[in-house]
Amino acid sequence: MGPTALVLGLALLLAAVAGFQARRWRPSPVELGSHSPSRPAASTLPPAPAPTRPTSASSTAEIDPNLPLYGGDTRRLAAQAIDDTARSRLNQALLALARRFLGRPASAWPLDPSRSERLRLDLEQFDQLRFVEQLLALVNSRQVTSRTEAVDRFSDHVRQLRYQDGQVAPCRRHHDLSRWAQAAERRGYLVNLTPFLPGASRQRPLSLRSSPGGAAAPMPPAERRPCLPSLDQSLAVDQAYVPLKGLAQVLPALRSGDLYVLLTQRPGLEGGQVGLVEVIGHQINGLHAATAPEVRRSLDLARYASSLDGVIGLAFYRPVPNPDGQPDR
């Protein structure tokens, strides 16, 4: 075989290999994502501590709490949700997924630090905070190369949103809605719109005598609540909000996918509700899992808020892309 034929044959072989690789690595919808192009596709979340496996099948005390515990069909539902919204803008993806879960069961999660804590993920039933929290995690898990990676990133984002410093422990779980939102803002998941809107502010003392669902709950004995401060120790959170009478002025500035936190005068560890804004024409609705028995749509957010006892106003947050779980500023 002459040199010319050899070179020609080698060129044809390399072209065939290049074509095969191009077909092999063509992005799927879940690979394409919809985040800012300035974000690297390979960005990673802060890693969880190395898992500790149990020494025997009957031992559960040594299971690492960072290992995700998926409820029901959550793995498949998460992968499908991420894939289906891969090409959507962040706020559009949030709205589409919130609508997808309308009608799912809703109930309060128990608050008892004496129980073992696990990173629990469940897209088949929600409480109000886990509904919003998991939606944020889903839409920030789309810039990936496979469904397996997408689900792994989903669990990592939930961990970063749910726990202080991403450390899975009962004493680290965010319960108060305002503190949860402030932590999400510090990590670059949300921007607080409320300080830029006409409104008011307050410093609100926190009570430890209620559950995240807002209902009164008995406190565990002192020896079973190592992470809760004594009842005479003062806790407070700063809250900016738009009073009910000023809602009509600010609602036109909102868009679908924004978050609202509904503030009340009622004492409690959470003291309000959280949900997503839905804009349909000139009407602003709320999508939430704040009331049993299901995730629901409350028509006319201003009228809905005014109908609830003790409500004084709302705070508003805008989700922003954050595929690496790190602060943007």
CATH class descriptor name: Mainly Beta
Strand content: 15-25%
Alpha-beta content class: alpha+beta
Oligomeric assembly: single chain
| Share of residues in helices | 25-40%
CATH superfamily: putative xylanase like domain
> According to CATH, what is the topology?
putative xylanase like fold
What would CATH call the architecture? Roll
Tally of individual domains:
1
Number of helices: 9
> What characteristic shape results from the CA principal axes?
globular
Head-to-tail CA distance between termini = 63 Å
Unreliable stretches, pLDDT < 50, 5 or more residues?
Answer: 3-43, 53-61, 209-225, 229-233
* Largest sheet composition: 8 strands, antiparallel
H/E element order: HHEHHEHHHEEEHEEEEHE
Mean pLDDT: 78
- Gyration radius, in Å: 23 Å
The tally of beta strands, per DSSP, is: 10
Give a structural overview.
The structure is a single chain. Helices cover 29% and strands 16% of the residues. It is α+β, with helices and mostly antiparallel strands and 329 residues long. The protein has a single domain (66-219, 231-319), classed as Roll (putative xylanase like fold). Strands 3, 4, 5, 6, 7, 8, 9 and 10 form an 8-stranded antiparallel sheet that branches. A two-stranded parallel ribbon has the order 1-2. Strand 8 and strand 9 form a beta hairpin. It is globular. The termini are far apart. Residues 3-43, 53-61, 209-225 and 229-233 have low confidence and may be disordered.
Task: Please describe the structure with a list of short key phrases separated by commas or semicolons.
globular; putative xylanase like fold; disordered N terminus; single chain; 329 residues; two-stranded parallel sheet; alpha+beta; eight-stranded antiparallel sheet
